[in-house]
Design goal:
six-stranded mixed beta sheet, single chain, alpha+beta, globular, five-stranded antiparallel beta sheet, 8 helices, about 475 residues, 21 strands
Length: about 475
């Protein structure tokens, strides 16, 4: 253990030196992070505020974080790990890259904060004087009314899985259409619940959804890619929202909301990460509704799709790397063809994909903006082979804007993002979605299509929009 600790510390030292050089050559120092010249940072004066702001939403006793950091002793014990994961930008988890617009409640460390963490670990993590503690000012957490509480049945995840994706059918008991103006999620087991998505099932689909719910043994049903029931297949037009650890309650702009369909059902998809074991969970979602009769501007969700045609490496010998063979296997296993007929919609052909490098398969699709809009929130979605995803308006034009850029995709940290400042789109503008995959890993390589399963893929984005004020 000691050898591993020193190895990590050495890596942190190397990375920290690089970051200090980069910081000195480009970024501005942060006055509030200064510590006395010639002395190392200390826990109380410099480190505790960083941990409180960026780490403690997950890294507490019983939280989803793999280690707790909520005491000085635990922080010191894990100082090398903190420095290393911060230096390589693994923690805190925040996928939007530097080209993305500013989002609300960003979980990003500045270069100065990273350098402090590295310098602190390099100095053997001194505790410092408690009397010199820097005041910790927590970010204000929005408070929302509990107008509707959606609670799933008590479920114990499958302990034989590392990741269990389960869908639960919940009746919100709302007879008439209402508008959701804010929402949040309260995980029953914070150490297990990794993300939650809320989908709506319209009234016509109730019977089909109830039949699907009854098919699997136990509570709910397995649903890696999405509910795949009553027309809700992982697309996001029917979603209310998403949640990941550390996410603040979501508040939509005043006077706007997402329509909650009267007489419908809610599907709560919960991703359980079971690295810390499986215990019974009963997660709840809380919805704040606009008063009946209130003048609410409906928010509109537009989904963006691109074709999924992902060949194997040129030298692969697995029979399933043949497109026709893989397509036949998909049909035999699911009774369906390859999901998503997006080639013609996106003006693409198979030749655009068949000869690409399997480590960098790129797919795009462009969409005309139907009328003037303001984008207030954005989400991107791929599966395990995803490398990057990008959503932008008017690409390659001087007035182009990046709406979301995730240069290093990680399926397990996906979520939705609310823009600090809405992005205006004009009638006639173009929105492009671009996905890149790597299909070179694993023992059972195959040609991959659009689908809901773990071994399938998606290229899916969504923008939540409102009409601009006039």
């Amino acid at each position: 253990m000691l050898k591993n600790w020193r190895f990590l510390l050495l890596l942190a030292l190397i990375l920290g030196t690089f970051l200090v050089i980069r910081s000195e050559s480009g970024s501005k120092p942060t006055a509030s992070l200064a510590h006395p010249p010639g002395s190392p940072p200390t826990y109380y004066h410099d480190i505790a505020p960083i941990i409180a702001q960026h780490c403690l939403t997950c890294h507490t006793a019983g939280g989803i974080g793999t280690v707790a950091l909520d005491t000085p002793e635990l922080a010191i014990e894990n100082s090398a790990k903190i420095a290393l994961t911060a230096a390589v930008h693994d923690m805190p988890p925040w996928m939007p890259g530097p080209e993305s617009p500013t989002m609300l409640h960003e979980r990003k460390l500045t270069d100065d904060e990273i350098n402090l963490l590295v310098d602190w670990a390099r100095a053997d993590a001194p505790l410092g004087d408690p009397s010199e503690a820097t005041e910790i000012i927590p970010e204000t957490i929005p408070s929302i009314r509990q107008d509707v509480v959606l609670t799933m049945p008590a479920y114990t995840p499958d302990e034989n899985l590392r990741d269990d994706y389960r869908c639960f059918l919940i009746d919100p008991q709302i007879a008439e259409d209402r508008y959701v103006t804010a929402y949040t999620v309260q995980p029953g087991q914070p150490s297990e619940v990794h993300h939650v998505l809320l989908y709506q099932i319209e009234g016509w689909g109730r019977a089909q959804a109830e039949r699907r719910d009854a098919q699997d043994e136990g509570l709910g049903w397995q649903c890696f890619g999405g509910p795949d029931v009553a027309g809700v297949d992982g697309g996001l037009e029917n979603s209310i929202g998403s949640w990941t650890p550390g996410t603040f309650p979501t508040e939509f702009p005043e006077g706007t909301g997402i329509r909650l369909i009267g007489g419908g059902l809610i599907v709560m998809q919960v991703h359980y990460n079971l690295s810390a074991g499986a215990r019974p969970d009963q997660t709840s979602a809380i919805l704040q509704l606009a008063p009946t009769g209130a003048a609410i501007q409906p928010l509109t969700t537009y989904s963006l799709y691109a074709p999924v045609e992902i060949p194997c490496p040129a030298d692969a010998t697995n029979p399933a790397c043949d497109r026709a063979t893989s397509l036949k296997q998909v049909f035999e296993q699911t009774g369906r063809g390859a999901g998503g007929d997006f080639l013609s919609m996106c003006h693409r052909s198979l030749d655009d994909y068949l000869h690409q490098d399997a480590s960098h398969i790129t797919s795009t699709c462009e969409y005309p903006v139907p009328y003037d809009l303001e984008v207030i929130s954005v989400l991107g979605h791929m599966h395990l082979r995803g490398k990057s995803i990008r959503i932008e308006s008017n690409p390659d034009e001087t007035d182009g804007q990046v709406i979301l850029d995730i240069p290093d995709w990680d399926f397990h940290w996906q979520g939705g993002y609310i823009l600090q400042n809405p992005i205006e789109l004009k009638h006639g503008d173009t929105v492009r979605i671009t996905c890149i995959w790597d299909n070179t890993h694993g023992d059972n390589l195959r040609y991959i299509f659009w689908g809901e399963g773990t071994e399938d893929e998606m290229c899916l984005g969504a923008v939540i929009t409102r009409q601009p004020a006039r």
